[in-house]
Design goal:
- This is LysR family transcriptional regulator.
- Keywords: DNA-binding, Transcription, Transcription regulation.
- It comes from Pseudidiomarina sediminum.
- By secondary structure, the protein is α/β, with parallel strands linked by helices.
- The protein folds into three domains: about 5-85, Winged helix-like DNA-binding domain superfamily/Winged helix DNA-binding domain (Arc Repressor Mutant, subunit A, Orthogonal Bundle), CATH 1.10.10; about 90-160 and about 265-295, D-Maltodextrin-Binding Protein, domain 2, CATH 3.40.190; about 165-265, D-Maltodextrin-Binding Protein, domain 2 (3-Layer(aba) Sandwich).
- It has 13 helices and ten strands.
- It has helices at about 5-15, 20-25, 30-45, 60-90, 100-105, 105-115, 130-135, 185, 200-210, 225-230, 240-245, 280, 285-295; strands at about 50, 55, 90-95, 120-125, 145, 155-170, 180, 240, 255-260, 265-270.
- Strands 3, 4, 5, 6, 7, 8, 9 and 10 form an eight-stranded mixed β-sheet that branches.
- The chain is rod-shaped.
- About 30% of the residues are buried.
Length: about 300
């Protein structure tokens, strides 16, 4: 039996009528009748008999139906999958981002992108740096964006931008509002500890170790925006990425460049064995532009 035979047989079996089967299949009644006749000719036996204006399945049809039903459901599954693949390939960008990128960068990039591509759908979820690999492996997202994530053999990395690391301080701490602070000056004041917060924290800790500096710290957090909130309450200074700093403004807080400077790269990651769809690739320049606009 051909696929068209299966569709017609299934529709007639369920409706008991050529007319209703034609309506279900959105074809003409003569086309249904012709397809049924062709199927029965190929099989060598009748599938239906007419009684009192209805088509009743033969014993052979009853025997065939469970297998036909299974094939029909599989066919519907294939059609549904094809539709999803077509939709996703043409119009869905599935992202996983680390929290710092959610303040301004990704919203700005999506807004700019959709002005040019209004039909594209976005799915965005927030992950921490240690969740990037499992999120991609489990196909929960197609593209993950974050600060200098660890290199994994199964992932391809795409450079987006290098983001400056800056110092946040309460205005009362440095009333003269310096535009630049040295690491030696910073460690003379309470420094909120975010060293276990991921790649940015690791870079900061390495810089302090290389300079042989030991910060004073009574507050330890693992999220940059919490560190910024603590600074706003006068509980110390913190060293965080520029994106998090700009995403958590406060009248009582000022920002300064570091001396010597420190940068952390942003990477876009995807599974090496799952190349990015064209629509996702086309989003990357907007992402780079959003970062550049914020840090310059």
């Amino acid at each position: 039996m051909r696929l068209r035979h299966i569709e017609v047989f299934h529709a007639i079996y369920l409706t008991g009528s050529l007319t209703q089967a034609a309506q279900v299949l959105h074809i003409s009644q003569p086309a249904v009748s012709k397809t049924l006749a062709h199927a029965e000719q190929q099989l060598g036996f009748a599938l239906f008999k007419r009684e009192r204006g209805k088509l009743l399945p033969t014993a052979e049809a009853h025997t065939l139906f469970p297998e036909i039903e299974l094939l029909y459901r599989q066919l519907q599954g294939v059609q549904s999958l094809a539709q999803n693949l077509r939709r996703d390939a043409q119009g869905t960008i599935d992202l996983a981002i680390t929290p710092a990128l959610g303040f301004n960068v990704v919203p700005d990039a999506i807004a700019a992108f959709q002005r040019q591509h209004p039909g594209v759908r976005f799915r965005v979820q927030t992950v921490h740096h240690d969740e990037i690999l499992p999120t991609l492996q489990q196909r929960k997202a197609d593209l993950a964006i974050g600060f200098a994530p660890p290199h994994y053999p199964a992932l391809t990395a795409i450079a987006i931008a290098d983001v400056p690391i800056r110092a946040l301080y309460a205005v009362d701490t440095f009333p003269q509002r310096p535009q630049q602070l040295s690491w030696h000056t910073l460690v003379q004041h309470p420094l909120i500890d975010i060293f276990d917060s991921g790649p940015v924290g690791q870079l900061i800790w390495q810089q302090l170790e290389q300079a042989q500096l030991t910060p004073q710290s009574t507050q330890q957090v693992d999220t940059y925006f919490i560190a910024a909130r603590l600074v706003a309450r006068g509980l110390g200074c913190c060293v965080i990425d520029t994106l998090s700093a700009l995403g958590n403004p406060a009248a009582s807080v000022a920002m300064a460049d570091l001396d010597p400077p420190l940068h952390c790269p942003i990477r876009a990651l995807h599974l090496t064995d799952k190349p990015l769809a064209k629509v996702t690739q086309s989003f990357l320049p907007y992402l780079r532009g959003a970062v550049t606009d914020l840090i310059t």
